[in-house]
Amino acid sequence: MELRFLLDTTAYEADLSRPMPIGIPVDFGGQQPNFFKADNAQACALDLGGFIGDTRRGGSCNVETITITPHCNGTHTECAGHVLDQPISVLDMVSPTPCLALVVSVRPETAEHSDDSYIASLAIPMSSSSHAGRWTLR
Fold first, then answer.
1. Model confidence over 32-88: pLDDT tens digits?
2. What is the DSSP string of 43-80?
3. What single DSSP character describes residue 24?
4. What is the pLDDT of residue 19?
5. End-to-end CA distance of the chain
6. What are the distances in angstroms from CA 19 to CA 2, 14, 96?
7. How far is CA 114 from CA 63, 88, 95, in A?
8. If you write DSSP's letter for every residue of 80-132 in order, what string do you get?
9. CA distance 34 to 63
10. Hey, where are the domains in the chain?
11. Looking at the whole model, is its pTM more than 0.70?
């Protein structure tokens, strides 16, 4: 199914039968994206003594307990709830109608190779003229 539309003076089209995945799948047994030195995401068979959730270990079906920190163990969608005190889910923000989006991919950089430094509630402007406009912690 093809979708074509005009927004302002720009024409857009998309083939809805050929979606493009943009997330990185979590490989519980292999390498994973990892940020802030969080524990890796884990999946293990549910073991309740009389029930084992792994057919390879004699269980009747596969049932896994998954432990994951979405912000640290993979790709995720940001929303205001990530930085606000109120619990807001991205699902609360999604419209059922199609919308344009900009997908941005960045190459991670370790903190020791970055000039960025901030904690929003503590950030204050530096007074040095060589760093005018930059923010740092004191």
1. 888 888 899 999 999 998 999 999 999 999 999 999 988 888 877 677 777 788 887
2. EEE-B-SS-BS-GGGT-SS--EEEE--HHHHS-----G
3. P
4. 84
5. 56
6. 11, 9, 17
7. 42, 30, 36
8. GGGTSSS---HHHH--SS-------------GGG------TTT-EE---GGGT
9. 25
10. 25-79
11. no
- Give the residue with greater pLDDT, 9 vs 119: 9
- Which pair of structure tokens corresponds to residue 15? 């083939």
- Of 123, 116, 121, the closest CA to residue 137 belongs to 123
Q: Output the six-digit token pair for 116.
A: 């960025």
Half-sphere exposure of 134 (CA within 13 A, CB side): 12
Burial of 73 (0-12, 13-18, 19+ CB in 10 A): buried
CA dihedral 29, 30, 32, 38 (to 10 degrees): 60
- Cβ count within 10 A of residue 41: 19
